[in-house]
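Much of our argument rests on the idea that a fold can be written as discrete symbols. Part of our work consisted of pairing the sequence of a single chain with a tokenised description of its backbone. We regard such an encoding as a compact summary of how the chain folds. The amino acid sequence and the backbone structure tokens for this protein are reproduced below.
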Amino acid sequence: MIVQMLKHTPLWVFGLFFCLIYLGYLQSKPRLVSRPRLAILPVSMLCLSLLGVWSSFGTDFIAFSAWASALAAVVALGMALPQLHGTSYSFESRRFTVPGSWLPLALMMSIFFTKYAVAVAKAVSGEASLSTVATVAACLVCGLCSGLFFVRAIRVAKTARPPVAHRSAA
């Protein structure tokens, strides 16, 4: 069964998989990034996640609602979190120091394998749609992962706020 699955997988899917592995590996290393570069990965993963929902479920209201709800909930909760440990911002170079983490790779693989599992399930069942529970579960995973990317970027971006000057009581 697994061999058949892999044989029927388009070649571009393997290319995407290895590209995501490489990007995840790069995220595991500490690095300096500009503001625009800080936004590239969250926006890219948002697009990949949204494309996954749209290509798998079309314009299904329940699918998009589950995806958007998970995304919004994670981002809303993440706004209350403090600045990410180990990050800093240089006002001179206008760059963030971001610690390495394997979390982005885990999130990318979660989105990728969720989309892949949905495609395989549809191909094996021969049906155009999955059950409502499976649809909601897949869309929640994609929304959750996209939201976590945004939360991480927001927490890093919080380091760019100028320090608050303390007034002395004279």
